[in-house]
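User: Thanks for the earlier help. One more: Integral membrane protein. Can you show the sequence and predicted structure together?

Assistant: Of course, both are below.
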Amino acid sequence: MNAEKRLLRWASGIMVGLGTGHLSLLTLFAWGDINGWAERGVWAAVPLAPNEGAADRTVESLQNEVTFWAGPGSFAVPLILLGCLTWHLAGRGVAVPAWAGWGLAAWCFVGGVLLVPSPYFAGVVSGALVVLAARQEDRSRKAHTRENEPV
């Protein structure tokens, strides 16, 4: 396995691990709220009417909204999908652009600073691995081009 593929596989593993871990912990700690969605109907998880009945909001309704935004409405699902896409592209030998790694690293760094302590900083590592893989791919492409130039 070449170095770029190995770096991308590590990056994708971190992404999938963070997203899956986030959803798993939420399921453990907020099972009552999630189970309530099935009882009331999934469409009732977070009401669509903003500020309707704001004066009589209950702790339970606020907890219900927090559970939604910490679960299916959070970064976890897109992060898992990005990790799976990165794994797939690495397997096909397709380079993931460096801008994706920079964006992921910046987003996770800001999230980690705002929400300390958190595993957000592991996402910075994942983004850095994507950037390193993209740079190694560029270097190997340039070296291959130089080798094939006519003398």
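User: Great, one quick takeaway?

Assistant: The mean pLDDT is 85.
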